[in-house]
Amino acid sequence: MNTIYKTKLVALAALVLTTAACKKDFLDVTPTDKVSDTAVLSDSVLFEAFVVNRYLGVRLIDKEAEGTPPGFGRGFEYAMWSSLSDESIYNNDDNTWFIQRGQLLPENTGIAGTFWKRSYRSIRECNYALTHISEVPMSEAHKNLLVAELKFIRAFRYHDLIRNYGGIVLLGDKVVELTDDFSDPSLFKREDLATSLAYVLSQLDEAAAGLPENNSNSWLRGRATRGAALALKSRLTLYAASPLYNVGTWEAAVQAANAVIALNRYTISQNGYRALFRKTSDDNEIIFARYYSVGARHVPMEIANGPNGYDGWGGNVPLQNLVDAYRMANGKSISDPTSGYDPQNPYIGRDPRFYQTIFYNGAGYRDRNVETFRPGGRDSQDGPSNWNTSKTGYYLRKFIDEDMPINNPWNIAGLQPWIYFRYAEILLNFAEAANELSGPDAIPAGASFSAREALNQIRSRTGVEMPAVPAGLSQEAFRELVRNERQIELAFEEHRFYDVRRWKIAEQTENVPAYGIEITKNGSTFNYTRKIALDGRSFAAKHYWLPIPREEIQASNNTLQQNPGY
Question: Which residue ranges does the record assign to the SusD-like N-terminal domain (predicted)?
Fold first, then answer.
C-alpha cells in the first residue's frame, strides 16, 4: 500500500458504522468520531477502506480482550499461541499457565477466549458489506473483486472458529441486528463439522474465482489473492481428513494443495530461513501475510522476547520439548544412538533451523554470546533484570531482527510481517496428504511429484539443506517424519497447537511436563541437567476443542450448545 492509503486505513481502523436515531431533537447530533452508514455506502473510497479494515478487524473493548490483536489469530502478541503448546511457555504467565495445566473453563478462558466474539463480529461486518455493496457507486468489476475479498475474509474467520470450536453457527449472509429475536433458537444452531466445512470450502471456491492471481503493486500488498484462498482451502481440507475431524478425504486434501502448487507462483525461499520473518521480507514463498508500518506496528519482538542480559523481557521461551525435536544435521533423531548427538555438547551439529529459531547457551547475538549458565551467566538469574530470566534456559530467536535496537524499540521496531500462509506449509500439507493417500513415493493423480519429493524441496532450502529423504520409507515412518518436519519448519507460527489436536496425539504431547535445561559452568566446561520449567501440564479429551465462553451461552438464552466436557 502507498503511504497515503495506509494513513487512511489507520485513521479508519477504529470507526464503527452507526445508524441515525429516529427522533429528531437537540440531542440528535452527528458524531464526529464515527462514519455513518450513508457516508460509507455513498463513497467508494470509504467503502473500500471499510472492506480493507476487515483484514484487521476491531479490538474488542472489554477486560477479557485486553491485548487481543485485531487481525486473524494472535500473531505477534506478548503471549503467543505457541505458549499454549509444547513449543514454549510464556515467562510472565499472562493467562497461559492455567491453560497449559488443563484448567480452561467456559468462565475462565484467558487468551483463548476471544475467538468466538471477534470472529462473529467480523462475520457480521462482512455480511453487512456484502448485503449493501450493490448500493455503492463503483464499477461492477471492482464490486466483484471486493465481494471475493469479503468472502475470503469471512471464510478465514469461520476457519478460525472451526479449528478452535468444531461445528459452528453458520449465518450465511445474515446481518444480525439488535432488533432480532434472540429467543429464536435457530439463530444459535450449531452445524456439525461436515456441514460447517462444506460451507466454508464453497465460499473459498467462490472467492478464489474472483480474486487476482497476484497483487501487482504496493497499494494492494497484504490483500487476498487466489493463492491465499486456495491456501486456506488446502489447510481446511487437510484438517477435514485428519483423525480429529474425520469428515474429509486425503484425496481432496492432495487436490487442494496441488491447486496452489499448480499456480506456479510460489517457491521455497532461497534467501535464507530467518529472512522470511524479518521486516524486509518480500519473497515468493509468502502467499498471504499481515504487513505493518511505522504508524501501525505490532509488539516489538526484540525487547518482548529478548534475553534478560540484553534488557529483554524473556517472553515466549522455547521448551526443551521442542529443542529435542530438532534432529541432527545428518537427519537422524537425537534418540538414535548412531546420530552423533552428545548430551554434554547438545547444540553441536543440529538441524540448521534450530540455530535460526532458538537462542541457546553459547548462541551468538549482537556483540556477544548468550549466557544462560550459572554461576555468572549474563542471561541467567545471575544477570541483570533477572526477573525476566528464561524459565527454560532458552529464548526465542525466529522473529528477532538484530538490526532493531532493544532499549528504544517503540519508534521503529515491530515491523516484521506475520505470515498466515507460505509455500512450505502447502508442500507439507501435500506431503502429509499424499502419504496418507498412497505412500511417500507414489505421485498422486494430477500432481507432478511425490510426498517425499515435496518434503525434499523444503529440506533443500539455502541455509537449511538437510539430507534428502530417501526412497522406500514405509507410510508410518514417513508420517512421523512429516509430522516432525511440520514441528520444526513451522515452529511458533500457530500450527503446532492445532496439529497435535487434529492428529489426536495431544493426550501424549500435552501431558508431558514443560521441560527446560539447567546449565552449570565448572571452569571451562558445562553440565546440562534437564528440569521442569512449568509443572502440572495436563490435557484431557475435552481439550481437543475450546469451550465457548459462558457469556456467549447465556446471551443465547442457553440455547447455544456447549462443547462436550465443559
Answer: 25-238
